[in-house]
Amino acid sequence: MDRLEDRLQEELQNLKDTGMLRWVTDLYFEDSVWARDKEGKRYYVLSTNNYLGFTHHPKVLEVAERTVAAGTGSTGSRLTTGGTFAASVLEEKLAAFKHTEAALIFNTGYMTNLGVLYAICRKGEYIFSDSLNHASIIDGCKMSGAKVLIYPHKDMEALEELLKSVPPGAMKYIVTDGVFSMDGDICNGPELVRLKERYNAILIIDDAHAVGVLGKTGRGTAEYFGLEGKIDIQIGTLSKALGAEGGYVAAGRVVIEYLKNKSRPFIFSTAQPASTLAAANAALDLLSTEGETYLDKLRSNAVFTRNYLKRAGLPVSEGDTPIIPLVVGEADKTVQIFEKLKGQGVLLSAIRPPTVATQSSRLRLTVTAAMEQEDLKLALDKVVACYKEVICGKK
Ligand SMILES: *Cc1c(COP(=O)(O)O)cnc(C)c1O
To answer: What is the pTM of this model?
Structure first.
């Protein structure tokens, strides 16, 4: 044990010395934007994935509270005694929402990517994966045993070359984030569909940050590009814009039936409690009925924020999503800005390697539909001041 602890301690010290050490911050969210820490300090949280603010919507809370009466845990896999009405109802709604024949819920989006990729893809097959794909896609690819060919971020010419390089008869999968989680940019949907058709590949898009964000009614990448029916397998999460916890895959009936029988993360893990899934159900209903109001607000807050930061001289890239990265470069400077802002009651995420490439550490700023422009402006002023203080040494 001493030997192991010495080794682990050495690695931890190394992380500390290079500004890479990670830690947990406990928060109590009073609403979807404001949270308190254990000392009672209040924060304006400018980095959640709660894009529509649904975690604290009265309708969602009411449904979740009511459904807790069915028990605080499901205590079984869906295939044993953990099946709930809420899960099956939600799967039907998700399939309709995504215009697919069927859908299947997993415990998290992370487990969904593992569960889909390593159940379906196998040795002797080829997966083409964007270099900035989410860790859960990377891990699912590795576990599958298929040969993984990584193409440079959104480089469709490179992807085409790779597609040409494998035996034409081989089974091929192209897998990508719809909206990239740390950069906030969007995959090239139309070109991906062209390539998958031309090279007879299967297209898998992970809409974790796209549902509730992209498309007129928030259905994600397919709706944004007008590609409904063209994406073979759509992955998503219940944990971001839908304000609950879980993941799902929406696809044809055969794929879903196969996953129910063969996907180990689905089979061997206890299902979410009904209250969690009922909350996601209520959130999806809200998105379907009143979605445009929330989406309009989300978009106007994103445009406002990009313009505000740009005008203040911060290096903000153009974009269509509420994910606005402020790339700093060095990990320690990123953490310095994070700490300064935290001191002033604004919470952002300091994102460092290995989540992003070396020398591309950043503050990940996100806006939500629940933010009011007056509060947002106050928080952004602090972001600008702290950023300039650390980067330009200005006081
Ligand atoms: C967050 C995220 C996931 C994981 O979803 P969870 O429900 O948080 O486990 C998967 N893919 C992408 C692209 C993500 O951003």
So the answer is: 0.96
